[in-house]
Amino acid sequence: MKGYIGEFEELVLLTIANLSKDAYGVAILNDISKRANRKLSIGALHSTLTRLEEKGYISSYLGEPTNERGGRRKRYFEITDSAKAELSNMKALRDQLWAGSKVNLSVK
Amino acid sequence: MRADKHPPILAQRLLKWHAGKADLEDIQGDLDEVYGLTLEQSGKLKADIIYWVQVLSLLFSYGLKKRKSKAAYSSFYHKNSMTMFKNYLKISLRNLKKQRAFTLINVLGLSIGMSIALLAMAMYVELKQFDNYHPNAEDVYRVTTTVELEGDREKYSSSPPALTYRMDEVIPSIYKSVHIDESFTALIDHHGNNIRTYGYHTEPSFFDVFAFEMESGTPEVLNEPGKVIITKELATKLFGEQEALGKTLMTEEWGQLQVAGVLKAFPKRTHLRFDIITGFALSEKFDANYQTSIWTTFTHSYYYFAIEKGKAEEVQSRMNDIGKAGLIEFQNENREATYHLQSLLDITPGELLNDGIGIQFDMPTMLVFFGISLLILIPACFNYANMSIAIALKRSKEVGIRKVMGSHRKHIINQFLVETTLICLSSLFISAFIFNEIKTGFASMVAGGNALVFDISPTLILVFIGFAVLTGILTGLGPAFFFAKISPIQALRSDASKKVSISGIRKGLMVFQFTLTLGFMIGIGVLLKQYHESRSFQLPFTTEDTFIIYTQGMETELLKTELITDSRIEAVSFSSSIPGTSLYNQVYAHHPENQDSMRFKQVFVDDQFINHMNLELLWGESLTTGANTPEKVVVNEEMIRRLKQMNFTDTLNILLSGGHRAHVVGIIENYNHEPLNESMEPMMLRIDPDQLTYCMVKLPMENKLAASKLLAKHWDQLFPNVPFKATLLETEIDNAYHFFRVGIQIFGFLAILAISISCLGLLGMVIYATENRTKEVAIRKTLGATKRNLYGSLAGLFLKLWAIALLIAIPASYLFYDNVLVSIFNKYGDGVGVLEIFLSISVTLLLGGAAIYWQVNKITRINPATNLRND
Q1: Is residue B374 part of a domain?
Q2: Pfam family example for this protein (chain A) (predicted)?
Q3: Contact call for residues B616 and B623 (beta carbons, < 8 A)
Q4: Do B57 and A42 touch (CB under 8 A)?
Q5: Which of B270, B325, B522, B533 lies at 20 to 30 Å from B296 by C-alpha?
Q6: Number of folded domains in chain B?
Q7: Averaged over B576-585, what is the pLDDT?
C-alpha cells in the first residue's frame, strides 16, 4: 500500500472526483459542507490538500484569472491515477466486506 | 461582492505577514470568495468573523507551512552550487571584459594599494618565524628588567648578572642557560683596512641553547682567553676560500685574537646579531665580582635559559625572590626593579624594549606599518566601490533581468563578490610583482632589514591569496548590497539612468581621496622644504675648509705639534664627537642633597676646541689643559637652566656619577652640536686627551684633494704603519642627515602610491561622468555650446569637490605637519610655510586637471551626429 488514506482524505478525493473540472478550494469546501454537513475551515482543507499532494494522490494547476475574485487565479485540483487505483482498491475491499458480512447491515 | 465591503484589513495583513514569501494567490482568492458568499447570506459582521476564523485556521495550517518552507529554501539555490559558481565566473569575466577601462583602472589601483599591505604581511609572517629553529624554542626564555624611576617606567631586555648567575645555581628547573654580554666589539686590521665587528662575550652553552653549529673548532674554546669564534660570513670576508681556523686577527682593542672556530652559516631569522663571539675570559670586567654584585649597571648583559615545561610560573616566583637581594642597590639610586620572563618566540615581533640585543623589530612599529598600509589600501577599495556603483547604469539592466528571471538577492550579491574577488586576485599578481621589486629596497631602508629575506614560502602565498580574497569580499560588499537592492521594475524602465547620478556618498568618498592626496602632496613639499632648511641652517661653528682626521687611538699631542708646524693650516683642535653629528655619550649629574639626578651629554675636547669652532663664551673662561682637581669644565646655557630647574643649589660645582666632581669655569651659548632633529640638550665640554678620537683641521685650500694629500703626508711622517683616514666636516654632517633622506624616501614612496591610487580613482570617475553625458554634450553642441561652456559644465562638479577638499586638507595637514612631522625632523625650522603648500596644491591640481581635460576633450571632439544618430 502506497500511503494510508484517511476517512477525511477519502472524502476530499471523492469530492474532487465528483466536481471534476470545477474542483477548486471553495467549491470543494462548499460541496463537503453541504453533503457531509461538516463545518470545515479553509486552513484544515488546505492542510489535507497539501498532504494529498505530497502523497501523490492529487495534482494542482492554476486557472485563468477571474473577475469575481479580484483577478486572483483559482487553484484547481485533480486526482491522479494512483489515487484512482487506491480509491477502487478501497471500494473493492469495502464491497467485499459488505458482501461477506454475516450480520445484516441494512438500517431498519 | 459589493465594492465597499472589504474583508477585514488587519486579518489580510496578518495572513500576508505570516505567509512571507509563500505564494498565497489562490488561498486569498478562496478567502475572498467565501467572504463574498457569507456577506450576501448573513451580513458584514458574520462575514468578518468567519474571515477571521478562516485566517486563524490558516495560520496553523500545514498547507501554508509547507508553502512557506518551499519558498524559503528554493531548491535551485541549494543544489548545484558549483554550476552556479561557474555561471558567476563566466558572467564576471564577460563583464570585466566589456568594461575594459574600468577593469584596468581598478586592477591597477588595487594592486598598488595592496603592494604595501603585502610587504607588511610578508614582514609580519617572517618576523613570526624568528628564532623558531632553535632547539625547544618554546621552552627558552630570557629575563627582562623593568626599572621604575619616579613613576617613569623603562623596560630593558637585559638583566642584572648578579640575578642571573644566582638563578643558574638556585633554580633546578633551568636545565640549560647562557649568559651573554653584548659589549664585545673588535676593530680588525685586515690588510690595512679596518673592519668593525660586533659580537658577544659568552660561554660554551651558547651552542646548547641556540641552534648555531660549528663548522670547525669546539664551543669549549670560549673558556680560553684570546680565542674567538667567527661566523662563516666574516670568515669569507676576511680569508676568502682559505681555512680560517687557527688564523690570527689583529684587533685594535684586544691585540691578537686567534680564530678557534668557525660557525656554519645559519638562518638570518634570529634576533641575535653577531659576527664574532668570544669568552668572558677575554675581559677583566667579568670577574667574580661581576657575577655576584652587578645589579644596577646591567646594560648589555643578557640571560637566556630553557626550563622544563609548565614550570614558567615557578621560575618567575623564585626569580622574584632572588631579585629581592638586589633591591637595596636599586633603592640607593632611588630606583626600583622588577623582573619578567619573556619567551624566545615572543621577542620578535615583541614589545618595545630598551637595550635590545642586536636589532629588534617591535610590535608597535609593526602596527604603525599595518596602519599605513591600510591608509594606502582603503582608498583603492573606495575607488572600486565608487566606480562600480557609478557604472550601475550599465549593470542595473542586467540585475533587473536576473531578478525577473527569478534571481534571489543572494545571487546578485554573490555575483558581485565573485567579480570583485576576481579583480583582487588579478591585482594580486601585479602587486606581488611590485612587492618583489620593492622588498630589497625596503629591507635596506629599515634598520636591521638585512635579516629580512622575504622568501616566498607556501605560507606566504596562502596568506597573500587569503588577503586578496578577503580584500575582494570586503570591497565588493558595498556594491553588492547596492545592486541587490535595485528593484527590477525600476532597473528595466528606460529612464532608469536618472536615478543613478553621483550620489552624496560618492561625493564624500571623492572629497576624502582628494584630501588624502593633497595631504600627501603637502607632506612631500613640507619635508623637502624642511630638508633644504636644515641643510642650509647656519650652524654656529665653522664648517668650511674643515677636515676631520680619525685619530685611531694615536698620540694626539704628537699629531697636533706636527700639524701646527704647517703654516697653511689655520687651526687644529680635537674632540670625541664630530660637531653637527649625533652625540651618544651621556652621564648623570647627582644632586648633592637628595637622590635627584639629571642626564646630560658630554663631549671631550682639547683646549683649542671652543676657539676653533667659534663657540661664543657667555661667561667665564675657556678650557685649559693640565690636571685639575676638581676638574674644570665648560657647560652650555641649557645645562645651567636645567640645573636651576631641578633646584641644584650650586650650579657651578657638579657631582658626576662615580663621585667625580666638576667645576664649571665657563658657560657657552647653546649651539647645535647634534643634527637639527635633536632638541637642545644640556651639554658639558671636558678635557681628556685619552678620549679624543677626531682631529678637526682648518685648511683653506681650493683643491680639497691636494689638501687631503698634504694632511696624509703629515700623518704618514708620524704614523707610517697606520693608514690615514679623513673626511670633510661637511661630508660628516651630510651623513648625519641620512635619516632625513631615508624619511623623505619612505614618505615619498608612500605618497606616490597614494597619489597614483587617487589619480586612478579620479580618472575612473571622470570617465564615468563624461560617458554618461555624451548625449547631453552632443545636444548642447548642436544647440551651439562652445568648448568653454562644455568644459565648465563637465568639470564643474569636480572643481566643486576639490574646493571642499582644499578647505579640509590645508588646515588639517598644516596642523599635522607643523606639530608632528616637522618636529621629528627639524626642531629649529620655521615650521610649515605658505610656499610649499601652494606648490604642492598646484601640482595636485595640475595632475587632476590633466585627467579631466583629457576625458572632457575626448568627448567634446566627437561629432554630435555620431552620438545622436541612434535616437
Answers
A1: yes
A2: PadR
A3: no
A4: yes
A5: B270
A6: 4
A7: 81
Phi, psi dihedral angles at B309 (to 5 degrees): -60, 140
Give the percent of chain B with pLDDT over 90: 8
Residue scoring higher pLDDT (B522 or A68)? B522
Residue B58 to residue A69, Cβ atoms within 8 A: no
Inter-chain CB proximity A43 and B61 less than 8 Å = yes
Nearest-CA residue of chain B relative to A49? B63
Which of B360, B389, B416 is the last residue before a domain boundary?
A: B360
Give yes or no for a cis peptide into B349 (omega within 30° of 0): yes
Q: What is the pLDDT of residue A73?
A: 84
Quick check: B186 and B197 in contact, CB under 8 A? Answer: yes
The burial of B788, by beta-carbon neighbours within 10 Å (0-12 exposed, 13-18 middle, 19 or more buried), is given as exposed
Q: In B, which residues are within 8 Å of A24 by CB distance?
A: 26, 30
Final residue belonging to a domain, choices B699, B730, B761: B730
Determine the average pLDDT of the residues in B160-176. 89
In this prediction, residue B2 carries a pLDDT of 45
- By residue range, what is the domain housing residue B694? 546-730
Cα dihedral angle (B361, B364, B366, B369), rounded to 10 degrees? -130
Average pLDDT, chain B: 83
B770 and B862 co-located in one domain: yes
pLDDT score of B734: 85
Nearest beta carbon to residue A74 from set B26, B59, B66: B26
Domain A7-94 has CATH 1.10.10.10: yes
Asked if B520 and B652 sit in the same domain, the reply is no
What ipTM, to 2 d.p.? 0.86
**Which of B32, B53, B62 has the CB atom closest to A41's CB atom?**
B53
Could you report the per-residue pLDDT of B231-281, keeping only the tens digit for each? Answer: 998 898 888 888 888 888 888 778 888 999 999 988 888 888 888 999 888
C-alpha span between B841 and B819 (Å, rounded):
20
Whether the pLDDT of residue B493 is over 60: the answer is yes
Same domain, B833 and B752: yes
**DSSP letter (8 states) at residue A40:** -
Pair (B485, B337) in one structural domain: no
| Whether the predicted pLDDT of A70 surpasses 80 | no
B383 against B595, higher pLDDT: B383
Tell me what pLDDT residue B3 has. 47
B104 in a domain, yes or no? no
CA dist B636 and B653 (Å) reads 14
Residue B229 sits in the same domain as residue B373: no
Q: Which is higher by pLDDT, B466 or B833?
A: B466
Q: Are strands B597-605 and B683-687 parallel, antiparallel or unpaired?
A: parallel
CA B800, CA B190: separation in Å to the nearest integer? 67
* CA closest to B38 among chain A residues: A30
